[in-house]
Write a structure and sequence with these properties.
There is one protein chain. The protein is built from seven helices and six strands. It is an alpha/beta fold and 206 residues long. It folds into two domains: 151 residues, Ribosomal Protein L4, Chain: A, CATH 3.40.1370.10; 49 residues, no CATH class. A six-stranded mixed β-sheet has the order 2-1-3-6-4-5. The chain is elongated and about 95 Å long.
Length: 206
């Protein structure tokens, strides 16, 4: 099994931990990661772009002029696209950009993303992560101690002290284990997991 060093918040080595090969050291399938990122980005799109077509433009109940005898091309309504103030032809309409991915694909994509971080030696495991009070300064000191540049921190449960301490830090994001996703794992070049988060991920993805 894959092994990783476990550190405390002071960057002292505490122990070693075995990681599940099926989750943290499996083959990295880039096409699955790509599909999952596309899936997440598509689901986030609002899809609210819209404009008025001729059916919703107010007016146009009366024929502008008679059919014959004027020398002009026949016209049936002033709401037609060829009239100033008429409806748009083939304009955007509200739509849903989301598409379906199988549950197995989502699971394998997350395992590939986690494995990519482990194989690139960008995965750090902490024995615990606790602050007595909300302190951005203390969190920044910990980040600097490990020399993280762009880091995703995954904790095992709700922790307001940790989540609020990191909120204003640039290139730092804190997620709970149940919210880990492929997009954020790949967006941040370094990944930090608490031991509790590792247990939750292994339990959920086993």
């Amino acid at each position: 099994m894959a092994k990783v060093t476990v550190y405390d918040m002071q960057k002292n080595q505490v122990s070693e931990r075995e990681l599940s090969d099926a989750i943290f050291d499996t083959e990295v399938k880039k096409y699955l990661v790509h599909d999952m990122v596309r899936y997440q980005m598509a689901a986030r799109r609002q899809g609210t772009a819209a404009c008025k077509n001729r059916s919703v433009v107010v007016g146009g109940g009366k024929k502008p002029f008679k059919q014959k005898g004027t020398g002009n091309a026949r016209q049936g309504s002033v709401t037609a696209p060829n009239h100033v103030g008429g409806g748009a032809a083939f304009g955007p309409s509200p739509r849903d950009y989301a598409f379906k991915l199988n549950r197995k694909v989502k699971k394998l994509a997350l395992c590939s993303a986690l494995s990519a971080r482990f194989q690139d030696q960008k995965l750090t495991v902490l024995s615990d992560l606790k602050f007595d009070t909300i302190s951005t300064k203390s969190f920044k000191q910990m980040v600097d101690r490990f020399e993280f540049k762009k880091v995703l921190v995954v904790i095992d449960s709700a922790n307001p002290e940790i989540e609020l301490s990191a909120r204003n830090l640039h290139n730092v994001k804190v997620l709970r284990a149940e919210g880990v996703n492929v997009y954020d794992v790949m967006k941040y070049s370094e990944l930090v997991l608490t031991e509790g988060a590792v247990e939750q991920l292994e339990g959920a993805l086993a």
